[in-house]
Amino acid sequence: MGKNLPTPQVLKGDTGWDAETAAPIIAEFAAIKGGLIPALHALQNRLGYIDDAAVPDLAKAFTLSRAEVHGVISFYHDFRREPPPKHSVKLCRAEACQSMGSEAMAADLIQRAEGQHECEVSAIYCLGLCAMAPSAMIDGKLVARLTPAKLDAHLAAAGIGFKARTV
Ligand code: FES
Questions:
Q1: What's the N-to-C CA distance of the chain in angstroms?
Q2: pTM, full prediction
Q3: How far is the CA of 80 from the centre of ligand 1 (A)?
Q4: Which of 93, 97, 108, 124 is the most buried (most CB within 10 A)?
Q5: Cα-Cα-Cα-Cα dihedral of 100, 104, 107, 109, to 10°?
Q6: Is 7 strand, coil or helix?
Q7: Which percentage of the chain shows pLDDT scores above 90?
Q8: Domain boundary among 53, 84, 115
Q9: Segment 63-81, tens digit of pLDDT
Q10: 36-40, 46-50, 60-64: least confidently modelled range
Q11: Neighbours of 99 (CB within 10 A)
Q12: Cα angle vertex 32, ends 41, 42, to 5°?
């Protein structure tokens, strides 16, 4: 039976790449068979993204070529290659939320977010809050029973300044 994988430490808002911070994370997972992908998740959780500067260290630690490490990072779309935006809004687009109007809210939000770089708007498929649909996650916080006005209030509370609603 294999060793349990360590739980990554998630530090919200800590998104600058730091090779000194990355080194022990890489070393910890390099000792585990099949540890490259968990190492990448741990690095991203801790530092916000996988900097190109980590690739040589990862290759050395996991006895892979740099091209192989690049291949793994680019194969999985969950891995970021650049620092994430300051804010994140994940709107649930799964069935229960769709039936409660999430598609219209998503379309409006995507339009209002256009051209700004402080917040990433993306889809998520079920947050486990179906009975309180439509729901979303704003900077890691779950919000539910959304209406356009409630969504705007949550965005404002999070300090996300999108363009004014036009409809
Ligand atoms: S479908 Fe949206 S929370 Fe389940």
A1: 57
A2: 0.68
A3: 25
A4: 97
A5: -80
A6: coil
A7: 71
A8: 84
A9: 999 999 999 999 998 899 9
A10: 46-50
A11: 12
A12: 15
Rounded to the nearest 5°, which phi and psi values hold at 125? -120, 90
- Locate tokens 């609603």: which residue? 165
Q: Is 106 in the pocket of ligand 1 (CB under 6 A)?
A: no
| Top mutation candidate among 105, 129, 137 for ligand 1, by most atoms within 8 Å of CB | 129
- Is the same domain home to 71 and 110? no
Q: Could you read off the pLDDT of 104-157 as tens digits, one per residue?
A: 999 999 888 888 888 999 999 999 999 999 999 999 999 999 999 999 999 999
Say if residue 52 is in the same domain as residue 36: yes
Rama region for 124: left / alpha / beta (φ>0; ψ in -120 to 50; rest): beta
* Residue in 93, 122, 124, 135 to alter for ligand 1 test, most ligand atoms within 8 A of Cβ: 135
| Residue numbers of the domain that contains 145 | 87-157
Cα distance between residue 21 and residue 43, in whole Å: 9
92 lines ligand 1 (CB under 6 A): yes
CA nearest neighbour of 126 among 91, 77, 166? 91
Question: Does ligand 1 lie within 6 Å of residue 146's CB atom?
Answer: no
Q: How far is the CA of 100 from the centre of ligand 1 (A)?
A: 10
